[in-house]
Amino acid sequence: xxxxxxxxxxxxxxxxxxxxxxxxxxxxxxxxxxxxxxxxxxxxxxxxxxxxxxxxxxxxxxxxxxxxxxxxxxxxxxxxxxxxxxxxxxxxxxxxxxxxxxxxxxxxxxx
Amino acid sequence: xxxxxxxxxxxxxxxxxxxxxxxxxxxxxxxxxxxxxxxxxxxxxxxxxxxxxxxxxxxxxxxxxxxxxxxxxxxxxxxxxxxxxxxxxxxxxxxxxxxxxxxxxxxxxxxxxxxx
Lengths: 111, 116
Description:
The structure holds two protein chains of two kinds.
Chain A: E1 3-6, E2 11-14, E3 19-21, E4 23-26, E5 32-38, E6 44-50, E7 56-59, E8 62-65, E9 75-77, E10 86-93, E11 99-101, E12 105-110
Parallel strand pairs in A: 2-12
Antiparallel strand pairs in A: 1-4, 3-9, 5-6, 5-10, 7-8, 8-9, 10-11, 10-12
Chain B: E1 4-7, E2 10-13, E3 19-25, E4 32-38, E5 44-51, E6 57-58, E7 67-73, E8 76-81, E9 90-97, E10 105-107, E11 111-115
Parallel strand pairs in B: 2-11
Antiparallel strand pairs in B: 1-3, 3-8, 4-5, 4-9, 5-6, 7-8, 9-10, 9-11
């Protein structure tokens, strides 16, 4: 079956620190992989995605590479800002099917 | 980008009453919409898949008579929580899949339901 395992939080970093949030997956077939971000009191927003192996998704300084050999899609950012404080969800979806989410990782960036 | 509008964003209701939550795709057609529930500090759990013009498909453990889903048009799905109880208090989020972009779904803002 399909599942996503995500690094547990919470994560607290100082501004300008390097961020990595680990995500691994189990899937049948060749799913698309996503990172969603949820700011306090809001719904989910797509942060980035990758639809096939070796693709790199990037947005707002965040990056993640679809690694089929390690079944991973780790999220990285070189220099975090206070405004990046949010909950981050890794997810997968096969075409025409539902989304499977990780448990979410709460990130707090302190000045 | 595509927009999914969910309404209301928050609601407080009395125990025993029913609450309707709307999910609209504003600039695309969505033959399929999904309803998720999120408990505090947990991930989103799929409740049901809503298909336009047909009955919803519910996940195991979700009471279909309690969580009524209607998907009457290509741009609107509704979730009605009937005879709500405090344990139904949660964050409900819908998503809609653009039929033209099959690998991506767009999420509403979510509805915070509090049953008192």
